[in-house]
Amino acid sequence: xxxxxxxxxxxxxxxALGQSETFLDFQExxxxxxxxxxxxxxxxxxxxxxxxxxSRLHFLSRRWQGxxxxxxxxxxxxSLIEAELFGFEKGAFTGAESxxxxxxxxxxxxxxxxxEIGSIPLEAQEKxxxxxxxxxxERVGSSQPIEVDxxxxxxxxxxxxxxxxxxxxxxxxxxxxxxxxxxxxxLRCREEDILLLATHFAxxxxxxxxxxxxxxxxxxxxxxLEQNSWKGNIRELKNVVERAVHRSDTGFIDKIVxxxxxxxxxxxxxxxxxxGGEERAARPxxxxxxxxxxxxxxxxxxxxxxxxxxxxCRFNQRKAAVHLGLTYDQLRGKIRKYGLTVLPHDxxxxxxxxxxx
Length: 357
What we know:
Blueprint: H1 3-9, H2 21-33, E1 40-43, H3 50-59, E2 68-72, H4 78-86, H5 103-106, E3 111-115, H6 122-134, E4 136-138, E5 145-147, E6 151-156, H7 160-165, H8 171-177, E7 180-183, H9 191-208, E8 216-217, H10 219-227, H11 233-247, E9 252-253, E10 285-287, E11 290-292, H12 294-312, H13 317-324, H14 328-337, E12 342-344, E13 350-352
Parallel strand pairs: 1-6, 1-7, 2-3, 3-6, 8-9
Antiparallel strand pairs: 4-5, 10-11, 12-13
Helix pairs in contact: 6-8, 9-10, 9-11, 12-13, 13-14
């Protein structure tokens, strides 16, 4: 099976789907280290698919028939994480009414995935280091050693090396866990995969809604998707696309909302004192000694926002359009409407010179 085919077929277990060189290069490095029975650290921004990558590491390893146990270390308090990792004996602390097996014991013969590994307190890090070095540990409340055979895969979006310098993460543990460090590519570096992933999410959402048609996207929407910065990466793309399919009455998606928290209603504007619980009508905007109508005020605001967006985006009109929440054609129309002089350059660059004299 080719690497590209393997990367695509893995989508049946999750969303590890892609065809870009960046994505395939990461999958190749992951596949190369998977059979080597050593710890691996996965570094990536939120929403890049760290747990999916850990799962793929496990199923491509010689441990694939063993358990794949996960733990999000950020969800547990420091007082509970040791008990969760190593288990505890009956009576070890208040509420310990019976013996409980920890995640290390449950992962014996397989892989233990520690997500948000940078959140583990130093006391627990010391015990994890002992497991890595000696393959043994004791349950909380016991002195009886338990031997385990576990491969650790850790994941984080923080700089563990910087934490080690500040003594917030044990350097010895970091050295033992970093046999291989893989950086997951953010979605903004996988532009070729965006439409592929969007189509996948849209099709699955359409099927979930009981629709028979396969969704498609307008050219303007495709441009918006490909030009967005995607701070939340694949998780954000999934939400945006599924929301668009849900809100659309047809299989053709020509409108997309990146930020669902933007209110469609005008903010309440109060002018003067309230009278009997009723607000007086807002007065016209006063600029200098002149009274400006709402239409002119909006035009002035749009003109200023366009100039600011072009400056912020280094006069790249396509990026400025995304910055303003407009399509490229809409931005071009407003530039013509307000008589802004734009000098075209390669890649959609232009210099906003302001209104002609």
